[in-house]
Amino acid sequence: MSSEILGFPGIKDEYDIIIVGAGPAGALAAREAAKKGASVLVLDRRKELGAPVRCGEGLGAKYPEKFGIKLSPGAISAHINGARVIAPNLKDDIIIRTPETKGFVLDRKVFDKDLAKDAARAGASIFSKAEVYDLIQEGGKVKGVKVNFDGGKREVRSKIVIAADGAESVIARLAGMKDGVSTLYDTDYGMEYEMANVKLEENGKDFSDLIELFFGREWAPRGYTWIFPKGKDVANVGVGIGGLEAPNAIHYLHKFLADPRMKYRLGNASIIATKGGAIPVCQPLKEFVKDGFMVTGTAAHQVDPIHGGGIGLALNAGRLAGIVAGECALENKVDAASLDRYKKIWYEEEWGKFGKRLALRKVLEKMNDDDFNSILSTINDKDIDLVLEGKFAPVVQKVLVKRPQLLKVLTVLVNL
Amino acid sequence: MAVTINHDKCIYCGACVATCPYLALRLREVYVEVYPDKCVDCGLCVKACPMGCITLPKK
């Protein structure tokens, strides 16, 4: 049976590769696999790619060029030149302007569609409002998907299925990858308002080209509160908290918005969008592949353990998964051992930085607000740059002079 | 029994889906669907929900 929309070529019965989810990871996987010459089908549950947005929308400056992505003007909401880190007292701050902190705040509704268009141009076949509700599995091998499309349920077979379905990671779990579930401990939960009539300045200081990160248990236990500019007076204002923290993210966001010290900047702002979601901030999945099956992007928990950003990592992971899937499909070698080349390359390219950041996260989790206040009044922008580069030792030394009680907590970073 | 979602408050962000070990919640186009036959009332999604819009059944 083949689905036809009034003669428009619908979903065929069989493909080399089926990708579930057309976010950054899925779209890049589709583009690369199609470029290799594989037949690629992309299925997305949503009726509009990129929407609803569930994301702070920040992306490092280096990524688009590195991965061959041309940003259309509409995909960029704001150009970012640095980051401002604010202490729990809402007073002390450090502003960092380095290559590592340059980037964009995107408009995901435009960005995601741009990526999908590139994938389509490369030859991938993409369908929105096509909900994959189950996998076809035979003898422990994934053989395709069951999809709800155009008012009917049907099966589509493939050599490889790539799960790129984001934080829910439902497809990986249907394939039996138990660690696809986000445990409360290993997940941050976020809530965000896109706000208009925001003041991106105060006391003569201009913050309009900075992402702002507010730390402290009072504002965001085990996470941070953010203001990401999206224009002259528009910003994503959000909070992510650890999963074991009570009561919930919206409580902390409202508390932040209501604080008298934020009144000048946010007191007259309007809410033009409400967003939220789960952010896995833990180890990546133990396995990225099984026979005929791959997981990529946030679905594989490939999310920055420090800032919870997922777009940059998803772009690269999707790209690598797509390249390997394309090659394996054409060679007809789709067993787990062949597909596992994707995991090997991912670790070669990402683990050096990822592993260090995971260790840093564990350290930050152990600190209290007094620690943060003390550290942020001690270190400067160059120190933060060193930390971002993974060079912890000199900064640890500086902090310990002022706050020796952190010795035990910080030693682990020196030994990395 | 199963959890109840306040659909007036839910922003269908999927946080509960990511957290449910039993796949008892699935994200649909404009709502979150609860599968009562899979829900064991463990309450993990209640803790996860950023909006605080999920409740356990009354004992």
> What's the N-to-C terminus distance of chain B?
10 Å
Greatest interface and its participating residue counts: A-B, 37 and 22 residues
- Shape call of chain A: globular
CATH top level label of chain B? Alpha Beta
Provide a quick synopsis of the model.
The complex is a heterodimer of chains A (416) and B (59). Chain A has 416 residues and is α+β, with helices and mostly antiparallel strands.
Provide the fold topology.
The complex is a heterodimer of chains A (416) and B (59).
Chain A: E1 4-5, E2 8-9, E3 14-20, H1 24-35, E4 40-43, E5 58-60, H2 63-66, E6 76-80, E7 82-86, E8 93-96, E9 103-106, H3 108-121, E10 125-127, E11 130-138, E12 141-149, E13 152-163, H4 170-174, E14 187-196, E15 201-202, E16 205-206, E17 210-214, E18 224-229, E19 234-242, H5 249-258, H6 263-266, E20 270-280, E21 289-290, E22 293-295, H7 311-331, H8 336-339, H9 341-365, H10 369-378, H11 381-388, H12 393-402, H13 407-414
Parallel strand pairs in A: 3-4, 3-13, 4-10, 7-17, 13-22
Antiparallel strand pairs in A: 1-2, 5-9, 6-9, 7-8, 11-12, 12-13, 14-19, 14-20, 15-16, 17-18, 18-19, 21-22
Helix pairs in contact in A: 1-3, 1-7, 7-9, 9-13
Chain B: E1 4-5, H1 15-19, E2 25-27, E3 32-34, H2 44-48, E4 54-55
Antiparallel strand pairs in B: 1-4, 2-3
What does this structure look like?
The complex is a heterodimer of chains A (416) and B (59). In chain A, 32% of the residues lie in helices and 29% in strands. Chain A has 13 helices and 22 strands. In chain A, the strands form five sheets. In chain A, strands 3, 4, 10, 11, 12, 13, 21 and 22 form an eight-stranded mixed sheet that branches. A seven-stranded mixed sheet of chain A has the order 8-7-17-18-19-14-20, with helices on both faces. In chain A, strands 5-9-6 form a three-stranded antiparallel sheet. In chain A, helix 1 runs parallel beside helix 7 and helix 9 packs antiparallel against helix 13. Chain B is built from two helices and four strands. The N and C termini of chain B lie close together (10 Å). The interface between A and B is medium-sized, with 37 and 22 residues.
